[in-house]
Amino acid sequence: MSPRCHLFAPAMALLVCLAPAARAADGDWEHTFVIYAMGAALDGKAQFGDLVVPVDLSISDLLDALEFGAMGAYRADNGTWSITVDATYMGLGGDAATRNNIVKGDLEVDQYTLMVTGGRRITPSLEALFSLAYFDLSSDLAIRIRNPLTQEDSTRNVSESAGWVDPLIGLQWNVPIGENWRANLRGDIGGFGVGSDFSYQVLANLRWQINDRFGVIFGYRIIGFDYKDGSGSDYERYDLTEQGPLVGLTMTF
User: Fold this and answer.
1) Could you say which of 80, 101, 166, 198 has the lowest number of CB atoms within 10 Å?
2) Mean pLDDT, residues 158-172 taken together
3) Which of 4-8, 102-106, 211-215 has the lowest mean pLDDT?
């Protein structure tokens, strides 16, 4: 059985990539906090045992399904070395059905992520990055299937949880544009079979520094991973890609 239910999608990690407002002098640490939000479209598939659920979730669908979300990050940079810590939580809930209402379902998902990134500046504009990202997904799926001949219903309940750590390597390029703007481009790849088979992210953003302390980030991000574990009825797989715009407020000191 493979019903197409548009809200059957686990929440993805929203991992912000902070770029320095301006390159700190060597030895002087600059600290930046950010709160942010990301609107995203999801596609791919989730599998629980023999139940495969195609995922096709637009930005408006994700906002309808969101019950609660909290996202924040911190970055310290001394001009040569940097460290970034990013933490997110998202709770999703929704229901969906096939066109003829033969298959209906309800899904509740809690998703936590924590990503720690260390950076080493290679040139004034280029950083080499190494990250460890922890993902935690908990899913409760209830499926109701109606027999079109007898009109009798059968139900199936699936509760699964998955947690794993992915190492990632990447590069971040950051340059000033005029007096108050900076452009940032970051790319990471990881997984390597340690946690997921493969994970990646690509981020492009612009940062407008309003004054010495406050700024705004506008960007676009693509995140994906392919994780699987277990076998038989305990098999689970999340093969998902998320992409969409993000906006955040920063405070630097």
Assistant:
1) 101
2) 91
3) 4-8
